[in-house]
Amino acid sequence: MTSPLVGIVMGSDSDWPVMEAAAQALDEFEIPYEVDVVSAHRMPREMVAYGERAHGRGLKAIIAGAGGAAHLPGMLASVTPLPVIGVPVPLRYLDGMDSLMSIVQMPAGVPVATVSVAGARNAGLLAVRMLAAFDTELAEKMVDFQADLNTQATEKGRKLRAKVAGNDSFGFGK
Ligand SMILES: Nc1c(C(=O)O)ncn1[C@@H]1O[C@H](COP(=O)(O)O)[C@@H](O)[C@H]1O
Predict the structure, then answer these.
(1) Of the candidates 49, 73, 102, 150, which lies 20 to 30 Å from 171 by C-alpha distance?
(2) What residue's CA is closest to ligand 1, atom 14?
(3) Which residues hold substrate (predicted)?
């Protein structure tokens, strides 16, 4: 089995419906990863052990998602030299603002790259970019991926223009 390069961890298995988009992005680029529940609040010793061992085990980045009082990404960043990408998971109350604020305002010296609320796909893609900085083949895949995005966006514009141009009441082109 290939050793994982990225650790995707979350405060609870209830975060998985949001976090699986990170795994999917890594799958698309064929990046090996591992997935686990690691909670700073509920299992602090295991959380520290995970963070302290991550670099030595060969991981290159950690994606950490948590909701509410989301201390997991910052606490992991404090015990590992690896880049940590934080995903604010939205919960039933406060729409993820609590998670976002808990993750994004880190003190100087302990960076966490925070993505948008529920932005797990971008967390996965950011991890791919980090790896691609040292991997020419992967960088080429990322360039192709970006070209696909461009094609898709261009096509959406073409379709929208065609749809709206056919609608006189909208006053297209005025
Ligand atoms: N924010 C944290 C941490 C942590 O930061 O250590 N551990 C669990 N949690 C969060 O608690 C929420 C509710 O968890 P449960 O669904 O298990 O009650 C989850 O979003 C989890 O990330």
Answers:
(1) 150
(2) 12
(3) 12, 15, 42
